[in-house]
Amino acid sequence: MITVGAFPHISVEYVKAKSLYTFINHDFASYHLKGIRFSMLGFQEQGWMENVPLFAAREYISRNRETPMLK
Fold first, then answer.
1. DSSP readout, 13-37?
2. 5 vs 27, residue with greater confidence
3. Roughly how many angstroms between the first and final C-alpha of the chain, as a whole number?
4. For position 53, what pLDDT does the model report?
5. Cβ-contact 66, 53 below 8 angstroms
């Protein structure tokens, strides 16, 4: 586990996103959205969400710019 600067209680690997999940699957379920999260973890396809590593964020955005965000 990696800690960040003056805040040793904040972990870089803590990527639990309940609010994103709630937004995607409950609040706006009729829109069929897919979440995108940028973090220090590797790429992960989780069905309702994609986790994109920070080092690949610029490339991911440039490749997906023309793709509509809704299914």
1. T----HHHHHIIIIITGGGT--EEE
2. 27
3. 36
4. 93
5. no
Taken in order 24, 27, 33, 39, the sign of the CA dihedral is negative
Contact between 3 and 11 (Cβ < 8 Å): yes
Cα–Cα nearest to 23, from 32, 11, 12: 32
pTM score of the predicted model: 0.58
Q: pLDDT tens for residues 26-66?
A: 888 888 888 888 989 889 898 888 999 999 999 988 887 76
Coarse DSSP helix, strand, coil percentages of the chain, rounded to the nearest 5 percent: 35, 25, 40
CA 31/CA 3 separation, integer angstroms? 37
| Measured CA distances, 23 to 1, 33, 66 (Å) | 28, 9, 23
